[in-house]
Amino acid sequence: MLSNAREEILGSIRKHLAASGPFDAGETNDQVVQSKSHDFEIKKNTESLIELFAESLEAVDGHCVIVNNEQEVIDAVRRILVDLRATRLSPKRMAVSDADEIRYLVESMSSELDEVAKAPSATELFGFDVGLTSVQGAIAETGTLVLEADREQNRLISLVPPVHIAVLDAAKISCTLGETLDALYRDGKVSPAITFISGPSRTADIELTLAIGVHGPQELYVIVKRAC
């Protein structure tokens, strides 16, 4: 029954996105995105999507680091940890997901921290300071990360520790939510659990006082790796 409900919801989203196509088509080629220092036209190529994603992520208080290869990913993680040691977070333990693409980081980070653990249990996770995962996609126009539970054991690692560091392959960045939903729908099915993350966790009380990190990470770092 849950599967049928999920398919109905996704089907409705796809139907309405398709219906809006004729109205969006006239704007797609001419749309201009305003940034603090410059304007640029959205183009369907990797570099412009990286730039738009970085700007959108930083607009929701996330941090973006752009690198070119695996060694630069390692260097970026080290710099992040060094910077965090100067804060009250001062990380000592890091939980790493079971993704093959970040396996090489485990050995590289072992000397930087007191402990680096691969996919610890849900109970153990509350004792870790940093969660490191890869992601399965990203939405450039909102700076949103997309995590699929059936592709990687990443959900709790991305949500429980005070700091989340995500490694994103630039080729997985889509421009819009609609494009991302199309990419998530494979072989007639989707992952049973999909997490969308836009910046650090934030919430507000009845008086609209904003608090960061109450229900999730206080800091979000995304390392975008360009295609080699």
Mind sketching the topology for me?
Elements: H1 2-28, E1 32-34, E2 39-41, H2 46-59, E3 63-67, H3 70-85, E4 93-96, H4 103-109, E5 115-118, H5 122-125, E6 130-134, E7 137-139, E8 144-148, H6 155-159, E9 163-169, E10 173-174, H7 177-184, E11 194-197, E12 202-204, E13 210-212, E14 219-225
Parallel strand pairs: 3-14, 4-5, 4-6, 6-9, 7-10, 9-14
Antiparallel strand pairs: 1-2, 7-8, 8-11, 12-13
Supply the CATH architecture.
Answer: 3-Layer(aba) Sandwich
Q: Based on DSSP secondary structure assignment, what is the total number of beta strands?
A: 14
Biggest β-sheet: count, sense, barrel?
6 strands, parallel
**Beta-sheet strand percentage?**
25-35%
Q: Number of domains in the coordinates?
A: 1
Question: Which superfamily, in CATH terms, is the homologous superfamily?
Answer: NagB/RpiA/CoA transferase-like
The number of distinct helices, counting runs of at least 4 residues, comes to: 7
Distance between the termini: 43 Å
The CATH topology, please? Rossmann fold
H/E element order: HEEHEHEHEHEEEHEEHEEEE
Structural class: alpha/beta
Approximate shape: globular
Give the averaged pLDDT, no decimals. 81
The portion of residues assigned to helices is: 25-40%
Low-confidence stretches: 27-43
> If you compute it from the alpha carbons, what radius of gyration comes out, rounded to the nearest whole angstrom?
18 Å
